[in-house]
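Students often ask what a holo structure prediction actually looks like on paper. The answer is less mysterious than it sounds. You provide the chain, you provide the ligand, and the output is a string of discrete structure tokens encoding the 3D arrangement of the protein together with magnesium ion.
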Amino acid sequence: MIAHGGLSPTAQAVLPILGVGSLLVAWQFLLPAAGVPAYIVPTPSAIFAVFAKSGPLLLGNFWPTAIEAIAGFTIGNFSAILLAIVFVHSRILQAAYFPVVLFFNTIPVLALSPIIILIFGLGMTPKIVIAAVICFFPTLINMIRGLDSATANEHELFRVLSSNRSELFWRLRLPRALPMLFSSLRIASATAVIGAIVGEWIGSDKGLGALIIQATFNYQSDRLYAAIVLSSLLSIGLFLVVVTVERKLIRY
Amino acid sequence: MGNAIHAAGLDVGYPGPHHPTTVLSGLDLDVEAGTFLSILGPSGCGKSTLLRVIADLIEPLAGEIRVLGETPRSVRSRRDVGFVFQDSTLLPWRTVRDNLRLPLQIGRGSLTRPIEDKTEELLALMSLSALADRFPHQLSGGQRQRAAIARALLGEPRLLLMDEPFGALDEITRDRLNDELLNLWRRTRTTILFVTHSIAEAVYLGERVIVLAANPGRVVADRDLQSVKQPGNRCSREDPVIVATMAGMRAALEAAS
Ligand SMILES: Nc1ncnc2c1ncn2[C@@H]1O[C@H](COP(=O)(O)OP(=O)(O)OP(=O)(O)O)[C@@H](O)[C@H]1O
Ligand SMILES: [Mg+2]
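The corresponding structure tokens follow.
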């Protein structure tokens, strides 16, 4: 843990708020004064006004992206976890197919996206697939490493106690893997949103990604910034869910 | 009483495509049931390897080994062996109490006799009751070792294998745990094989001390201490006879190194 040099709890809570506040104030007053035009960087108050004025439009575009990101996050991570479990229980399958997985990981998702959209059309499905693909690989790697991270002594302890395979999995390998799994899920909470938005850029008329593209072409920079703020809120929300579950499961 | 361990012409090694090694070679050893046996030997001579072949964690290359009159495999799969590892091997995600309860939760299918839930009793015995809800990383090294011993005892083993369990402790704590272990042994008379690097600890604890040598790994000295100790394997560390015995063991160990 990072030492906070003897700051009181109140100071620790208030200082970040003051920090953000001071930056917002500087953004609101100093940037316009410095001559930065509003169509490049609108002021915070202008962005906030968009939320009041076009709330329904923003929300209408928020939900598709949220659904795509959450579905992609769930499907991508879940299949990565399952494949990792298969791989650590069958060295033969791992030896045969892990190189294939490695190869697919070297293809940039951006290059893959048009193909995915060609296959799945223009609905939500291709965005979910892109978000899932982007989450999949890091979780697979971390989960394999996590499931294999029990020490030789721990395995010997379980052998002395004559555990069977399922006990070994549920009581040793899985608990051992959780910290590494969650460090990858935290990162995936942000990348899933990126995947959904990238998918929407390439072909969609709905969602935050589509809104970002439209706002850019129409020089509606306040709307563009509002869409960016919403995307980031979506990532933060997903991240907080992950951290909450992690705190529940990993108590030590 | 019968033999807890019978090994004859035992060869044990580690296979490896590049350099397979034979660690123990032609080892002969008989240990009577109920004995407290201390095992000394230079680092790398194969003390842990000996415990691991008895616990069926590795298989011998050649020779004969019987544990409690049976093969190590059948004794291990009946859960008659308790193992205390050098580094305690508590599971970090479990509290002390849940670590103790591990033997109650896994491998139950292979038990031929029911084991009692003596968790609270053993926590009290090892003075861990107040720490039962802590996680291993919140314990001192000595407390962790006590928890590991309690966990091994919970399975009610007929044979207890201890691999340098107190190696990382200060002398005061080590002496106190030695006495607790002896008391426990006097009550249960479980056969204990105790590996240590400390000559004083080996002599103080053991009814019998053996010294292993490296290359080839075999028993090079074997002393029965019952004649120099009081009944019940009791002795004082300052007793001149005990001190002389320690000096004798040191000479044997130096010859083996
Ligand atoms: N898994 C393994 N694979 C190959 N060689 C091993 C393995 N484990 C131990 N050895 C070798 O076997 C020999 C005996 O090891 P062992 O751990 O039994 O020694 P030890 O007497 O317990 O030593 P120490 O007192 O340092 O714990 C050593 O030379 C070691 O290098
Ligand atoms: Mg050793």
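The longest helix of chain A spans residues 165-202.
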